[in-house]
């Protein structure tokens, strides 16, 4: 279940890419399949081991182009262990809403992106997220859970200013390229979960809707694809913002 549009990001074979906050690796795996040189970065060592194992399995199964590389790296989003301008593309999907010092994390993302490179950031969309917070305190009070709700204007401002530091010194300015919305079918599921109890997976309505989402992900039926296209701009659970770091675009 991908959130980022890699064509819009400009991903090409051979690009060195960072998946910051990779989690279970869903975006890392797709970028690897497309021939990129991928680093899956996260704080969770156990999760990264599973990602590494699947990277190896993909290579052994011949699912990736010859020459594509992939590895994992554990660390802190506020102190990325990479050189300035090391990456051609960066994905930070559904991670900034968990980080208290989000401006510091943004500044680090921009630092390790090369001039001319592109960045995709996805976060929960404002309206669906507000509904979740209103319906359930447990949804956002869980350890490691969401600590803020972004508007598009707030996040665009933070990124285009380059992650302005606490003393007011701006970082490298970024150029906003546009936005998308994704996972419109998923918002009602989380509204149901928040209404009946976020841990109540056995509630009949939550269970039935979950089966629908599994069908969507596994089989990708045409009717649900069409429903997603209608619902994404209206109630898409995720907002995806695309940015470019000023500088020459590499061929």
TrEMBL record:
Stored CDD domains: AdoMet_MTases
Gene Ontology biological-process annotations: methylation
UniProt-listed Gene3D superfamilies: Vaccinia Virus protein VP39
GO molecular function, one term: methyltransferase activity
InterPro entries assigned: Erg6_SMT_methyltransf, Methyltransf_11, SAM-dependent_MTases_sf
Pfam families documented for this protein: Methyltransf_11
Superkingdom of the source species: Bacteria
Coiled coil: none
Residues covered by the Methyltransferase type domain: 18-121
Keywords: Methyltransferase, Transferase
PANTHER family in alphabetical order: GERANYL DIPHOSPHATE 2-C-METHYLTRANSFERASE, ZGC:194242
Name of the protein in question: Class I SAM-dependent methyltransferase
């Amino acid at each position: 279940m991908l959130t980022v549009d890699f064509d819009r990001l400009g991903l090409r074979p051979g690009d060195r890419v960072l998946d910051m906050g990779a989690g279970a690796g869903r975006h890392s795996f797709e970028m690897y399949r497309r021939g990129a040189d991928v680093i899956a970065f996260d704080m969770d060592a156990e999760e990264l081991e599973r990602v590494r194992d699947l990277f190896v399995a993909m290579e052994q199964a011949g699912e990736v182009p010859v020459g594509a590389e992939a590895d994992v790296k554990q660390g802190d989003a506020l102190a990325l262990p990479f050189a300035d301008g090391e990456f051609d593309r960066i994905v930070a999907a559904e991670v900034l809403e968990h980080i208290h010092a989000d401006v510091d994390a943004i500044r680090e993302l921009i630092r390790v992106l090369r001039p001319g490179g592109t960045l995709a950031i996805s976060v929960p969309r404002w309206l669906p997220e507000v509904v979740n917070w209103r319906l359930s305190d447990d949804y956002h009070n869980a350890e490691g859970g969401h600590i803020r709700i972004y508007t598009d204007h707030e996040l665009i401002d933070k990124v285009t200013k380059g992650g302005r530091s606490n003393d007011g010194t701006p970082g490298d300015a970024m150029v906003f390229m546009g936005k998308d919305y994704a996972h419109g079918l998923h918002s009602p599921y989380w509204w149901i979960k928040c209404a009946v109890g976020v841990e109540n997976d056995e509630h009949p309505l939550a269970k039935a809707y979950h089966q629908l989402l599994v069908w969507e992900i596994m089989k990708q039926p045409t009717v649900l694809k069409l429903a997603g296209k209608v619902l994404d701009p209206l109630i898409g659970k995720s907002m995806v913002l695309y940015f470019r770091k000023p500088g020459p675009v590499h061929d």
